[in-house]
Amino acid sequence: MVQTIQNLVSAKADTAIALAKEIWGYAELSYEEVKSAGALISALKKEGFAIEEGIAGIPTAFTATFSCGSGKPVVGFLAEYDALSGLSQRAACPVQEPVQEGGDGHGCGHNLLGAGCYAAAVALKDYLVKENKDGTVIFFGCPAEEGAGSKQFIARAGYFDNVDFAYTWHPATINEVGSRGDVAIMGANFTFDGVAAHAGGEPHLGRSALDACELMNIGCNYLREHMIDAARIHYAYSDPGGTAPNVVQSHAVIKYEVRAPKVSQVQELFTRVVDVAKGAALMTGTKMQYEITMAFSDYVPNRTLGALVDQCMRELGAPDWTEEDFAMASKFLRTYPRSTMVGIREKLGCFFEPEELDAALAKPLDRVIHPFNPKETGYNSGSTDVGDVGYATPTVSFNVATACLGNVGHSWQNTAFACSDIGFKGMLRAAEILTLAAVRTMEQPELIVKAREELKQKNGGSYQCPLPEYVTPPIGRY
Question: Phi/psi class of residue 408: alpha, beta or left (left: φ > 0; alpha: ψ in -120 to 50)?
């Protein structure tokens, strides 16, 4: 079976690589991925998939579906294709050189993620047809993971209700089914409105919206002492109220995001942040309103299916690197200053024994599959909207190396790797893992039942979206 699946993925390799290059070139930001989504839709249509565009009220979100026989079981692949601002970089170039100065780039490798899921979806479709098997393959086109997300809106609209399980992957520096979870997050725009006045002549008549924002920041700084260690509070001004210091600012907007391991903890912390904002408005005589713009549930891999995906990764192994790949990876690793390298070595200490680390960095592309620990209860500090899928159906995300060991995410180096032979090799190995894991899961109905029992213990029997019903995708507003 393994060789059959590798052959099926190999048959689509050229198309997948061409798609990855095309999407990399578009480098479209969150909710703006019109050309990127269009390229994937066109390729999937040619393979006989039925397309539904604009799902969950998001123009660049879509599903592509192919069914065989009874159509059961149903597997979903979660694809992303949005880029990041300001990370333009020439492909496979180990010297910082933007394609367009100040332009955007795939600094998280989502071009590889989307194209890899395409290869897996088509390979699985071809396997079901070739072997005369029952089942449905759904490719979920999920935009804006780097922004306010889309999967929570897709889940809230019920698109995962009849999906038996979902798999996805992410470009990374190591090969593993991640054992740790990703924390939940909630974000909102806080708008303060006051009264403008001459700051020198009649300051007593003004009510400063900017002062309210500043006091909100002070209040949140004091709040940080009284929240759990794993929680985070972030902020940024989106409208400070103008540039004239002699005008009392009558309007200002500040964005806040809070993180915590569990979605319930995020909701509790967010309520406290809102109370701080109310206090800031009261102190300054301004009016405050807030708009929730995003929220992701925490992601924890389904332990039942995680063990299966881990086994599939071990059967297929790490990507097949060449000496040329190692040499290129070394050039990229040398772009980091000594201070960054110290941090890289410390981080890699979690994956390699001390006596192994120097050898690993001498050829800095991951050559092993790191073990999945189903008993792990810790969390990473990042967030992803994959978490909401994981509350709606059994879900596993895994990592495959597409960049050198220690490479920093959301960097120009990452953009360069995302359109390189190293990136493409990792992408195709990920497609093989996705396909093999899907086939193995579909052939074990008792495993799917067990995975769904695990899910029920987690979600209480149904998915509850962390976003209020009135919140719509913040297209053009995030």
Answer: beta
